[in-house]
């Protein structure tokens, strides 16, 4: 990476951090480019080299969070996909502490942004994000469990909406319940 590239990415990172910090204090609609630039220590003209709109900055923050989120797991998504064909059906059940604890811990650690995600799913493109993160994996798992293809979309919707409903309620309480309790509730609701 050249010095110019390093500077470019460092500036983008500072803007991301400034934006997320402001989101902890203000609603998204009231955050201005001027505030982000001031907090990040960059000029408005520099900010427009990185992002055309605050929405673009938000999209990049979401993408970065998704990358960080996937790092919470022992196995990467691509490794999981590769191993799906040879895994036993028992191993293809994702509502276990092994998957839920990192997921819920990550949400708890980033609750400010996740509150925006659940309050404004269209703005945050939550449906696309969860479909991309989970859809192809869950669809393959359902196929391995011999769920008819025409039923899978309904089951994916139920799984994602049900999970998000529990997360939404947990976030509304500022994640006051312990992660283990929320994982236990999810495992109780979504049985094998």
Walk me through this protein's architecture.
The protein has 192 residues and is mainly α. The protein is built from ten helices and no strands. The model has no long low-confidence stretch (mean pLDDT 81).
Using brief descriptors, characterize the structure shown:
globular, 192 residues, mainly alpha
Task: Give the C-alpha Rg.
Answer: 19 Å
- Kindly name the structural category: mainly alpha
N-to-C order of helices and strands: HHHHHHHHHH
Mean pLDDT: 81
Residue share in helices? over 70%
Q: Give the number of DSSP strands.
A: 0
Please indicate the percent range of residues in DSSP E strands (runs of 2 or more): under 5%
Which segments are poorly predicted (pLDDT under 50) over 5 or more consecutive residues? Answer: none
Number of helices: 10
* N-to-C span: 47 Å
Q: Per the principal axes of the C-alpha atoms, what is the gross shape?
A: globular
How would a crystallographer describe the biggest sheet? none
How are the SSEs ordered, and which strands pair?
Elements: H1 3-23, H2 33-40, H3 44-50, H4 54-70, H5 77-84, H6 97-109, H7 111-119, H8 126-144, H9 149-172, H10 179-189
Summarize the model shown.
By secondary structure, the chain is an all-alpha fold. It contains 10 helices and no strands.
